[in-house]
Amino acid sequence: MVLANGEEKRIGINRIHLEEDAGKSMHDQDPNYSYVDLNRAGVPLIEIVTEPDIRSAEEASALLTEIRTLVRHLNVSDGNMEEGSLRCDANISIREVGCTAFGTRCEVKNLNSMRNVRRAMEFEFNRQIEVTENGEEIIQSTLNFDADKGTTSPMRTKEEANDYRYFPDPDLPPIFISDEWLEAIKSAMPTLPNEIVNQLIEYYGINKAEANILAEDVELYRYFNNAKVE
Asked: Long-range contacts made by residues 187-190, C-beta under 8 angstroms, separation at least 24?
C-alpha cells in the first residue's frame, strides 16, 4: 500500500528477480557520442516488476519512496537514486476511458531521481496522447530521458520477453519454499516502517507526518527510542 494524493493505493508485485548490473549507457555527456559506464558492472541487484496498477506519476513516485524507505530501513541499500543505488524503468501506456485493453507501452530507462520519474512519465503520457490524436501509431520502444530538456527520445525498438531467449539454468535447481519456512522468515523480520508509524501514533499521540519522519530514518528512530525525559 502506498499513499498518493491523500489516498491509499494498493500496487501489486508481479515478480522480483536477481540480476547483475551490466553498466549503463550515458547519452548526455557529449553532443556527438554516447558513453558506456561500466563502474557498477557485476554488482548484484534485484529488479521489482509491478502489476500495471499505477495510474499517475504521483503514484509511481509514492511507490519509489516506499521502496527507498524499506531498503534503507532494512540496511539493504542506501537507496540514493542519484548515485545509482536505486533506479526506475518506467513503462507508460495510455488507453481511452472505459477501454479494458492496455495500449502499446514505451519504457523510459534509468531514471535517477523522483523528480525525473515524474517529469518523464508526464511528458511521455502527453506525447502518446498527441501521437494518438494525430492518427499515428505508438511504436513499442525503449526511451532515453533528457533531464535538461524534459523530453524522451527513442533508444531502440522494445524487445519482447522471447527476444531475450530466456532458458532455465541447468545448474540451478528449483527452490521450494514451505509455509513453515516462510513463517520463520516473517517472524524474524524487524518491525517495518508502516508498523512503526502506527505504533508511534498509538503510543505517543504524535501526528502521522511526524511519525513518518521518525520511521523513515533508522538512526533518528533509534535516538528517539533511547531518549529519556528528565
From this structure: 190/73, 190/74
